[in-house]
């Protein structure tokens, strides 16, 4: 009893080591396969990240382009508004000038009439 392995009971055969089946990869081969899978995964992630970054850059460029177009459109609208406002101010000034000229003619006519009345010409 003392000469036997401590993990064995008397009368039992010693445990068999796991025998390798044909076609089953060894530990190194398994490690190599796992590393290869991980490398493929990391490469795929890198490609995805690069593609995502390219898409984001393209989106940013498109955004800048559209923002530039929007700014130009807003500037055109603002210029058009300023022109219309200036035209309105000019028309308003002309209207006031005409109104003032009419008022002056009216005042001149009334003054003339009052003068004639006071002088007894009428």
Automatic annotation (TrEMBL):
<feature type="compositionally biased region" description="Basic and acidic residues">
    <location>
        <begin position="1"/>
        <end position="11"/>
    </location>
</feature>
<feature type="region of interest" description="Disordered">
    <location>
        <begin position="1"/>
        <end position="31"/>
    </location>
</feature>
<feature type="compositionally biased region" description="Basic and acidic residues">
    <location>
        <begin position="21"/>
        <end position="31"/>
    </location>
</feature>
<protein>
    <submittedName>
        <fullName>Uncharacterized protein</fullName>
    </submittedName>
</protein>
<keyword id="KW-0175">Coiled coil</keyword>
<feature type="coiled-coil region">
    <location>
        <begin position="74"/>
        <end position="111"/>
    </location>
</feature>
């Amino acid at each position: 009893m003392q000469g036997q392995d401590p993990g064995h009971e008397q009368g039992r055969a010693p445990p068999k080591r796991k025998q390798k089946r044909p076609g089953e990869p060894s530990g190194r081969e398994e490690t190599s396969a796992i590393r290869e899978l991980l490398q493929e995964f990391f490469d795929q992630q890198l490609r995805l990240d690069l593609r995502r970054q390219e898409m984001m850059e393209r989106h940013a460029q498109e955004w800048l382009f559209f923002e530039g177009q929007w700014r130009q459109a807003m500037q055109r609208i603002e210029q058009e508004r300023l022109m219309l406002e200036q035209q309105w101010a000019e028309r308003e000034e002309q209207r006031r000038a005409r109104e003032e000229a009419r008022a002056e003619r009216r005042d001149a006519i009334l003054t003339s009439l009052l003068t004639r009345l006071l002088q007894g010409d009428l």
